[in-house]
């Protein structure tokens, strides 16, 4: 399936069934089928040189569970810093489309762009796939990305990227460049 999404596909460190089961146990929900397929077939790496999807792997710098918690914590700290100290009002997101108010409470972050946008699943129990959304780097604007991972990836490779990532972004190349364990360890060392 992923050969039809990527013109050039060089797989990285793939997730095993044990890695996926560990992530599901740590996160507390079943991972969507399209994401599971991606994690096992493509593995860790970057899409179009611009977008990294975190997968369950034994390297913390790219591991889904570790990164999901780290991103959520970082966003919460940033939003606390943006909060008006004289107000009890919660942070307000500008969410496009017909999403309900609980969207951000169900968010599980699983990817990041080079400019600092965050991809997340709308974790809705009982569904085989979760809608994909993007929290823009401004930490206010939220765009719908797609009904599943292939739809999202095809969207960012075409003009839909303007609705998914916003103005100023052109279509991403249909490439996936995987990272092996050593490259992921180096990534973790440079991020520290």
Question: Your description of this structure?
Answer:
With 192 residues, the chain is an alpha+beta fold. The protein has helices at residues 17-27, 33-41, 64-82, 149-156, 161-164, 181-191; strands at residues 8-10, 45-47, 51-53, 94-95, 107-113, 118-122, 132-135, 141-146, 175-178. The longest helix has 19 residues, at 64-82.
Topology:
Layout (H helix, E strand, L loop, with lengths): L7 E3 L6 H11 L5 H9 L3 E3 L3 E3 L10 H19 L11 E2 L11 E7 L4 E5 L9 E4 L5 E6 L2 H8 L4 H4 L10 E4 L2 H11 L1
Parallel strand pairs: 1-9, 4-8
Antiparallel strand pairs: 2-3, 2-9, 3-5, 5-6, 6-7, 7-8
Which stretches of 5+ consecutive residues score pLDDT under 50?
Answer: none
Q: How many strands, what sense, and barrel or not for the largest sheet?
A: 9 strands, mixed
Radius of gyration: 16 Å
The proportion of strand residues reads 15-25%
Report mean pLDDT, rounded to a whole number. Answer: 91
Please report the number of helical segments.
6
How do the SSEs run, as a string of H and E? Answer: EHHEEHEEEEEHHEH
Using the alpha-carbon principal axes, give the shape: globular
**What is the terminal-to-terminal distance?**
35 Å
Portion in helices: 25-40%
Report the count of strand segments: 9
Structural class determined from secondary elements: alpha+beta
* Side-by-side strand order of the widest sheet: 1-9-2-3-5-6-7-8-4
